[in-house]
TrEMBL record:
InterPro entries hit by this protein: SL1/TIF-IB_Component, TAF1A
Ranges annotated as spanning the membrane: none
Cellular component GO terms, alphabetical: RNA polymerase I transcription regulator complex
Domain of life where this protein originates: Eukaryota
Organism of provenance: Charadrius vociferus
Record Pfam families: TAF1_subA
UniProt-listed GO biological process terms: transcription by RNA polymerase I
Protein's name in the database: TATA box-binding protein-associated factor RNA polymerase I subunit A
Length: 412
């Protein structure tokens, strides 16, 4: 029957699609291409009224196969993409972007720029307004390529500047690229979203021409506008900008505080901790201890000598002064059940000693304070250090033994 035929036909298409997916996952690109051919042929025989979005599927799968197939060429890829552009106006601009990306990946920068310029001039009735965001993306990526051209011209100017190089055509081309790049980059970063690369390039343009106020405003907007998604990089870029221009420590700390709240394991937490430790305000020094403890909760920091050095220095200062031992106690209470196995096992003591003496020293100091002189990590490292007749390990052993009562107070 007609109904049964349609059901079987639909099922066979789904099976063919699953075979394509399986072949792609196993990187069997020739097999995937053969199944895609069968799939396209089956679509030509499909008289069902149900919309399946075949052009989207063919475009996505076909592009992936052609990018990886050993016998595909740039000519074939371009031919395929041009056909995909005519399959549906709703996806025209997206396909143009895909085309531009592929050209860029193959080093064809001028061709990619030309492709984006043609896409920017595309108009198709109401679809032009509907695809406004895609058009802005087209313009933004063209802006990136204008920025790339600007960088090339700038480097020519800088390289020959000391030799009295004077070429008005290079300077004019450079300013022309700046204007085109700035206009398009400025537009895209107004739309709420993650625009890291575009923001960095736009700020670079502004800084080069001395427009620091505009650059600061852009970075502040990107970092603090609630309409934009939470983005750690936004605060990193703002911090780096403030640091480059010698802003106050208060501004730097403010930028890093939000970064800490979003990504406590970020590499800039060492800078943050050092700034906080140097502060005269007790509240900030307390935050510094919290920051470095939080960073060391993550496996990626386990062997970070700077991080352990920061923690060891602050813990040592607190122990010597015997002030604010409650800070250490508060941080340790939530970690004492898992940090000993995570950081201070005998196995780690042995490995750290063999691989990095400085790391084992800093960790042994922290372990001795937090877990006492009988801690496995401290005992192994201090014994090895004294055995090797390294003076600072003898001093370390005396220090921990002398302040062992502190461990009893911290452990409660």
């Amino acid at each position: 029957s007609s109904h049964e035929y349609k059901l079987n036909f639909k099922k066979s298409k789904e099976v063919c699609l699953s075979y394509i997916q399986d072949a792609m996952l196993q990187k069997q690109w020739k097999r995937a291409a053969e199944f895609l051919t069968f799939y396209i042929e089956s679509l030509e025989k499909d008289f069902s009224t149900e919309y399946m979005g075949p052009s989207e599927i063919i475009w996505r799968i076909g592009t992936e196969i052609l990018c990886h197939h050993s016998h595909s060429s740039m000519k074939e890829f371009i031919s395929f993409i041009e056909q995909m552009k005519t399959l549906g106006v709703k996806r025209y601009l997206k396909v143009c972007l895909e085309h531009a990306f592929h050209l860029l990946c193959n080093g064809l920068i001028d061709e990619a720029y030309q492709n984006l310029s043609l896409a920017e001039s595309w108009r198709f009735g109401e679809q032009t307004a509907i695809q406004d965001k895609e058009m802005k993306l087209i313009q933004a990526y063209r802006g990136l390529l204008d920025y790339y051209s600007w960088c090339k011209q700038k480097n020519i100017m800088l390289e020959h500047g000391q030799d009295g190089f004077e070429d008005l055509s290079v300077e004019q081309e450079m300013h022309s690229c700046f204007r085109k790049a700035a206009v398009n980059l400025k537009e895209i970063i107004k739309i709420p979203g993650v625009w890291d690369l575009f923001v960095k390039c736009y700020v670079d343009l502004l800084e080069f021409y001395g427009d620091h106020n505009e650059a600061r405003q852009v970075l502040n907007e990107y970092a603090y506008n609630s309409k934009f998604p939470a983005n750690p990089n936004a605060h990193v870029y703002l911090y780096q900008f403030l640091k480059r221009h010698g802003e106050s420590k208060k501004s730097l700390i403010s930028a890093l505080k939000i970064l800490h709240d979003i990504v406590p394991s970020h590499e800039l937490m060492i800078d943050f901790n050092i700034m906080l430790q140097k502060s005269k305000k007790r509240k900030k020094r307390r935050l510094g201890l919290e920051v470095i403890f939080a960073a060391l909760d993550y496996a990626g920091w386990k062997e970070n000598v700077k991080a352990w050095s920061c923690l060891a220095r602050q813990v040592k200062q607190i122990v010597i002064s015997e002030k604010h031992l409650d800070w250490i106690k508060q941080e340790w209470n939530s970690r004492k059940d898992w940090w000993p196995a995570f950081h201070f096992s005998r196995y780690l003591a042995k490995r750290n000693w063999q691989e990095n003496e400085s790391l084992s020293y800093e960790k042994a100091l922290v372990a001795g304070i937090l877990l006492g002189k009988d801690c496995k990590y401290f005992k192994y490292v201090s014994h090895q250090g004294c055995k090797a007749q390294v003076k600072r390990f003898r001093i370390l052993k005396k220090f921990v033994t002398k302040h062992n009562p502190v461990y009893l107070r911290i452990s409660g």
